[in-house]
Design a protein that fits this description.
There is one protein chain. The chain has three domains: 101 residues, Efflux pump adaptor protein, beta barrel domain (Elongation Factor Tu (Ef-tu), domain 3, Beta Barrel), CATH 2.40.30.170; 64 residues, RNA polymerase II/Efflux pump adaptor protein, barrel-sandwich hybrid domain (OB fold (Dihydrolipoamide Acetyltransferase, E2P)); 115 residues. It has 331 residues and is an alpha+beta fold. It is rod-shaped. A six-stranded antiparallel β-barrel has the order 1-10-14-12-11-15. The relative contact order is 0.20. The protein is 42% helix and 25% strand.
């Protein structure tokens, strides 16, 4: 190998490293525009049931596009329907008890208590008359002292029964105690809460799409026993679509949230529009996915760009060229 050829090898190697470094650094392609490089960042969500049970149906396949609220899968809901029916019966029973206590005693029960008072009054009047008669004859000796004391005892018992009958009547006219009503209302609230839980559990046997998305994986098949929180589908959300990029400190002042940008991919001539939605307040080392040994110590700031007109042409991880400001002439 000649001296000239030996000299060209390290020169070409250094030139290649320089070109790679410049491709990773933001630069000005012309005018006031800034050129950055990033990757499409589409968020994913793992969908799972909040309840456990037997998977009854799985309605979409991998690659299908789903709409918000679309039914994706169902559990066998029969056990949950039975639980709702039992909770409804308990709640109805508690509601009836509260209504009974709030209304108080029936008119027939109050009338019965009034009749008991009248009977007690009559018995007391008779016993009081006997005491007076016995008291008049005990002086003449026509009645023994023991007979008089027996009449007094009978009168006192009649007076006690009369007082009890009057208190029972007053209680029935007033109705049930406030504490009893409050306790019944608390039991009703507990029954209603249990019913709400049962209905929520029944609703959780349906798995619906949270947003417009593409099905990435279908992890369970009908007939499988599925535990709570076990993923059944993985979805790739289609809105919003982000682009993740990095900028060094020298360009940071020109990259602010709300700045309009245009984006291009290597696989299409379409130009997408977006805006910078987030600039990280914390510096970090160049990520391993784009770093070289020479860039290992460079500090950059992460950007998140929201794509306003994303379509199926943007896919997870796809490299994107980002232009801030006016693009150079001829683009």
């Amino acid at each position: 190998m000649t001296f000239r050829k030996r000299l060209m090898v390290p020169v070409l190697a250094l030139a290649a490293v320089g070109i790679g470094y410049q491709s990773l650094k933001p630069h000005h392609p012309g005018g006031d525009s800034i050129l950055l490089y990033g990757n499409v960042d589409i968020r994913e969500v793992e969908l799972a049931f909040r309840q456990s049970g037997r998977l009854l149906s799985a309605k979409v396949e991998e690659g299908d596009t789903v709409a918000p609220g679309q039914l994706l899968a169902e559990l066998d809901a029969q056990p949950y329907r039975e639980a709702v029916a039992a909770a409804e019966a308990t709640a109805r029973q508690a509601a009836v008890e509260v209504e009974k206590l709030r209304r108080g005693y029936r008119a027939q029960e109050i009338a019965e208590a009034e009749q008991a008072v009248r009977q007690a009054e009559a018995a007391y009047k008779f016993a009081e008359g006997e005491v007076k008669r016995q008291g008049a004859t005990v002086i003449t000796g026509a009645t023994t002292r023991g007979g008089y004391e027996q009449a007094v005892s009978t009168r006192d018992q009649a007076a006690a029964r009369l007082a009890s009958a009057r208190e029972t009547l007053a209680m029935k006219r007033e109705g049930y105690r406030r504490e009893d009503i409050a306790g019944a209302e608390a039991r009703l609230a507990g029954a209603q809460a249990a019913l709400a839980q049962a209905r929520t559990a029944l609703a959780d046997t349906r798995l619906e799409a949270p947003a417009r998305a593409v099905v990435l994986t279908r992890a369970r098949e009908p007939g499988s026993m599925v535990g709570a929180s076990v993923p059944v589908y993985t979805l790739s959300l289609r809105d919003p679509v982000y682009v993740r990029a990095y900028v060094d400190e020298s360009q940071l002042g020109q990259v602010v949230p709300g700045t309009a940008v245009s984006l291009r991919t290597d696989s299409s001539a379409k130009v997408y529009q977006g805006r910078i939605g987030f600039v990280s307040p914390r510096a970090e080392f160049t990520p391993k996915s784009v770093e070289t040994a020479e860039l290992r110590t460079d500090l950059v700031y992460r950007l998140r760009i929201v794509v306003g007109d994303a379509d199926d042409g943007l896919r997870q991880g796809m490299p994107v060229t980002i232009t801030l400001g006016d693009p150079p002439a001829g683009n």
